[in-house]
Amino acid sequence: MITLDGLTKVFPAPGGGDPVVALDGIDLQLDAGRVHGIVGRSGAGKSTLIRCLTGLEKPTSGRVEVDGTDVAALEGGALRAARRNIGMVFQHANLLDSRTAAQNISHPLEIAGVPRAERQRRVAELVEIVGLSGREHNYPAQLSGGQIQRVGIARGLAAEPKVLLCDEPTSALDGSTTHQILTLISDLRERLGITVVVITHEMAVVREVCDTVTLLQDGRVTQTGDLLDVAADPHGALSAELIPLPPAPTGIEALVVNCDYGDSPTIRTSDDLVRRAETYEAAATIVAGTIETISGRQVGRVQLALRNYSGAPISREGLDAFLRELEGEGVVTKEVTA
């Protein structure tokens, strides 16, 4: 559905200094009908990538293909027609205060010259799809933050695009409303078969709604793949952010070990770690951890406090043997205390 091939964007520096490389040879393939997350810190190139995807920015070099059309090669009316295949949802919906929810949804259709009867039919359909029935005649001042974002999503879908780009769609919302909007995005993908690209810095958003994820750093792709594979890869740049390990309690009379699992064919849950310790006559207690279920698979980063059955820390020999066995089964371990 979306193919980026050698995408590069270089901006000339003001005052004649060194040019700024915003995107540096990005190669990326986003499959149709999936929710893809693009994450990265400020300055990573996310905003420039969006502008290139929508044709608002011309790449310095490379190809930006959306549904078989190279957007970067288009101009004028051809570019405007291609943009109708791409809907946009922003962090702030920026609705027109003088228009009702239905009129805001209808606005892009008016600009496109869609006949009135067809606009009304489409708006009524979208109001039902995004869960705004009964609110379509309200003005923005009469809507909650979540309802305003639903109007923004409906507006982005008005022209029946094949791709929906969501730029930080939940950053301005509280936790409960965020969950509702992410559920809506997931439902839209299922109901409409639309391809969704979510630009975000919130890892909770990625965990909840995305099928695949890409990390941008300094204008380059440093990691990309299915969410489960990325989260379960303890050596990857994104694993620690997707599955963060909270600080362990202090003053523990035990040997403490970090264990990252999810990519192991045999260690599938934290209980498996605890049971494995028992084979070395050790009692294992989880003292800190983050455990997430992604695509039906448990992925976790936990800290185990290991003691023998007398309550003393496990022996050095027992610990080394335990860690060797875990590492042989795909669990990444790191001793925290000696």
TrEMBL record:
Domain ABC transporter: 2-243
InterPro entries hit by this protein: AAA+_ATPase, ABC_transporter-like_ATP-bd, ABC_transporter-like_CS, MetN_ABC, MetN_ABC_transporter-like, P-loop_NTPase
Keywords for the protein's UniProt record, in alphabetical order: Amino-acid transport, ATP-binding, Cell membrane, Membrane, Nucleotide-binding, Transferase, Translocase, Transport
A GO MF label: transferase activity
Parts of the chain that traverse the membrane: none
Protein name: D-methionine transport system ATP-binding protein
